[in-house]
Design goal:
Helix content is about 5%, strand content about 40%. By secondary structure, it is mainly beta. The two termini are about 40 Å apart. About 60% of the residues are buried. The protein contains 2 helices and 45 strands. A hairpin with a 2-residue loop joins strand 42 (about 495-500) and strand 43 (about 505). It is globular.
Length: about 550
């Protein structure tokens, strides 16, 4: 069913198949209109849970409410410094537990039972930010608490889900979603159930999956598998004390770094199928529902991988600390990073085309929106500092997500501290780079054409723009797939380029370990730090993935 997204007012308890009653047209046909409204207001205003498994039962989040207020923009006094938050004038009609950006610019939303064991109407949806519409549809099994990535062909790949609540059992099923037809089809079953698994796209385009609770008992699936959406191959055994929903990052050398929630970070070798301990965090305890980000890989930093972990903890002990590790050195060690503005659990972190990281949401007490951390922050890798990114309107706790959109803004959705209820308001963050010092919208560089839109590793492609002379960086940002305080897909890779007669001649990443095959958001960024609206580009390799 396709509906216009709802205006505030109607109650949304659980997920229901019909939302036509009370649905009205909104005055905003796109995010551009919302930004225009925000800018107009500024002109007239004076500037003024389930993670650790270690010889004990896994940590399971206690809940698996939403306030109703009139939608409004929170006016920032200096949007060119902090950015600007705005609440859209319509609601999300299903619990957005899992979200993925597709290469057509639409967002896949997977809810399933939506953390309500009594809700037997299992749903997913597709949100089109440009038209402010959502198509909701039934799904054949409960995909709640799955792991989701995007295959090189652009299809979201859903792994596992909820076979049973209390005690939880996971599905061995997988599903593939076709962005063109908006239909799920069955994929290959995994080695056993996986409830709260993590998947990682490797450098050859294959997919590694691990962790999750089994379909026969609420114990960890210890098998590691590598597949391609058609078949699976056994790829070792998970390390002792592994968490559910581990945080993982593909590194430029082809290995996979794991860093949470467990304090003993690990390195997985997809060729040898083995894990090796790397370093122990300074925090020294589990960072349940903290988050982790692979910082930008750019020519300027030699594509040296650095990872940052933030927040989380062992409830009731929650932390505001961050740590960083340089994985390019022979003996990596965690070092302290800057403290966040407050303790955060269930937070989100989103890489921007500027290379900054938006850190937002979470709460100082797990699943308590009254302790929600409304102030967002921007992390600046170059200076290793945080600055304020303004205040959100709504607390974003368990099952909340943030994700970069093609227009360079960030969507914030969800929040589900108690079963059967969720936060339906959608917030949009417009980063400082979208504003001039007087609060009006900045002039953005424009991509008029990308040739070809499918590039091979190490090949050249051209970007036509009338702003070629002012472009200082060209970056690829992998389209996100987010759930449970972690984006399993995001990475930013900087590209080398030359301005040749007003056309940018760009060199694609050298290999898949830098940027795994698939679709990316291509941004050009000018000398004022303002990014273009992205265009999608597809990266692939000339030869087929190696057999395992």
């Amino acid at each position: 069913m396709i509906t216009r997204l709802c205006l505030p007012g109607a109650q949304f308890r659980g997920v229901h198949p019909v939302f036509s009653a009370g649905v009205r047209r909104t005055g905003f046909r796109s995010l551009r209109a919302v930004l225009a409204l925000v800018a107009a207001v500024l002109v007239f205003q004076p500037l003024g849970h389930a993670q650790q498994q270690s010889g004990k039962e896994p940590f399971i989040e206690p809940a698996e409410m939403h306030s109703k207020t009139k939608a409004r923009a929170l006016i920032a006094t200096q949007p060119h410094v902090t950015g600007q938050w705005a609440t859209l004038p319509f609601m999300m009609p299903l619990n957005p537990v899992h979200i993925a950006m597709m290469h057509n610019g639409k967002v896949l939303i997977v809810s399933g039972s939506g953390n309500d064991p009594n809700d037997k109407i299992l749903q997913a949806g597709v949100w089109d930010p440009k038209t402010a519409t959502i198509k909701t549809f039934l799904i054949s099994y409960d995909m709640f608490c799955n792991g989701m990535i995007i295959l090189p062909n652009g299809q979201p790949f859903v792994l596992g889900g909820t076979l049973k609540y209390d005690s939880f059992l996971g599905y061995a099923k997988t599903s593939l979603f076709n962005p063109a037809t908006e239909v799920f089809t069955s994929g290959p079953d995994m080695s056993g159930g996986r409830w709260y698994p993590t998947a990682t796209v490797l450098g050859d385009g294959s997919v590694m999956v691990l962790s999750g609770l089994l379909d026969t008992s609420s114990t960890l699936n210890t098998t590691v598998q590598i597949g391609n959406g058609v078949t699976w191959t056994a790829a070792g055994t998970i390390f002792g004390g592994a968490p559910l929903y581990p945080r993982e990052h593909l590194l430029p050398d082809g290995k996979v770094f794991e860093d949470g929630s467990n304090p003993d970070s690990q390195m997985y070798d997809p060729v040898a199928h083995t894990f090796t301990p790397v370093a122990t965090t300074i925090f020294g305890k589990n960072r349940e529902y903290g988050t982790s980000v692979l910082l930008p890989l750019t020519p300027a930093n030699g594509f040296k991988p650095k990872v940052m972990i933030m927040g989380g903890g062992e409830p009731p002990l929650i932390t505001n600390t961050t740590e960083l590790i340089d994985l390019s050195v022979p003996s990596p060690k965690w070092v302290s990073g800057p403290a966040m503005v407050g303790d955060r659990i269930q937070l989100n972190a989103t890489i921007l085309p500027s290379g900054q990281v938006l850190v937002s949401g979470g709460s100082t007490v797990d699943e308590d929106p009254t302790t929600g951390v409304l102030e967002a922050q921007l992390y600046h890798p170059a200076t290793n500092t945080f600055t304020s990114a303004g205040n959100m309107e709504f607390a974003r706790v368990y099952h909340s997500n943030t994700m970069l959109l093609p227009d360079g803004t960030v969507m914030a959705v969800g929040g589900n501290p108690t079963r059967g209820d969720f936060e339906p308001h959608i917030e949009i963050y417009s980063p400082p780079y979208l504003f001039k010092t007087d609060g009006t919208l900045a002039k953005r560089p424009v991509i008029t054409k990308v040739t070809p839109t499918a590039a091979f590793y190490g090949s050249k492609f051209s970007v036509s723009t009338p702003d070629a002379a002012s472009i200082k960086s060209v970056v690829l940002v992998r389209a996100g797939a987010v759930t449970h305080a972690f984006d399993m897909e995001q990475r930013l890779v900087g590209l080398s380029f030359k301005n040749v007669a007003g056309v940018l001649q760009v060199t694609a990443p050298a290999k898949g370990n830098l940027a795994p095959p698939g679709y990316y958001l291509l941004f050009i960024v000018d000398d004022a730090g303002v990014p273009s609206v992205a265009q999608f580009i597809h990266l692939s390799q000339l030869t087929a993935p190696r057999k395992r």
